[in-house]
Amino acid sequence: MRFERRAVRAALTLALVLSLGVVPLRARQKSRAKTRGKKAEVASQSKPTAEPASELARLRAQLVQATKEYKSSLEQLLALYEADVKRADERLAKTKELYAQGLVAKRDMEKDEAAAAGAREKVAALQGQLKSADVQIAETLVEADAEEVAAKSAPKSLPSARGGLIQTTAYIRYNGARAWSLSEAGAVEQFFMRKFGRALPISSFGQSPVHDRWGYDHHNAMDVGLNPEGVEGRALMQYLQASGVPFTAFRYAIPGTATGPHIHVGRPSHRIAPRSNE
User: Fold this and answer.
1) What is the DSSP letter of 113?
2) Could you give the angle at the alpha carbon of 158 between the alpha carbons of 157 and 161, nearest 5°?
3) Strand 262-265 and strand 270-271: pairing?
């Protein structure tokens, strides 16, 4: 269908933007060192190479735009799928009436039941894609922003870290009292289930394609979709701190995406070389 083809094109665009990553800082420093002696010649022939910060901002803008286009295509496709669900449900209702009157066989009703269930499954899968696009992209950008702010801050300007706890307007970071591994995630999940009677809303477990493309080491961490200002978020942070588990809780969202506030369990994600799309 037309919207399906459009969704595929948008997805390919998003994948292309993700595959670009960010050029390593060391490579950019070498490039600037080679051209430093020919500054006048370069200035007369071409514009200077973009600084890493501005390049990162450009790539982020591309990523947000590609994500919007991808989501727009999915939303149009979702409308078609929801219409399919409505038609399937209406057909099933009629078939059930006919079956009650003995006018159709049971297998006909079961066939329409399966068709209606399949239509609902397609809607659920598409909704999951939309949510995943929001959550993983937003969380990765939030973490990148916070790490950049922390890196640019002079040590004397950082808030005092009482007991390894640092609080800023953007995030709360607890450095932890011991080493923590992703294999211990089960204990965190059990605490949350006992406390709130529902599963811990994990949005990213270990390394994800988004982290690969953006060049962040997330292999020994997990992201939990809880706002640190909420009751559940505060309870989780208290548990983690009492258990000596390091975490970073992000308070804000990234403009252009729907989600952002979350709790990163584990050591902070550090930059690595972005993975190519080969």
Assistant:
1) H
2) 145
3) unpaired
Q: What is the pLDDT of residues 129-174, one digit of tens each?
A: 777 666 666 666 666 666 665 556 544 444 444 457 877 767 788 9
- What b/e string do you get for 236-266 counting C-beta neighbours within 10 Å, with b at 16 or more? bbebbbeeebbbbbbbebbeebebbbbbbbb
- Give CA–CA dist 110/144, Å, rounded: 51
Check the CA dihedral 238-240-242-246 and report its sign.
negative
Q: What are phi and psi of 171, to 5 degrees?
A: -155, 165
Question: Other CB atoms closer than 10 Å to residue 194's CB: what's the count?
Answer: 8
Q: Give the CA count within 13 Å in the CB-facing half-sphere of 217.
A: 8
End-to-end Cα, the chain, rounded Å: 29
Query: With contact defined as beta carbons under 8 Å apart, do 248 and 216 qualify?
Result: no
Q: Locate 75 and state its tokens.
A: 């939303």
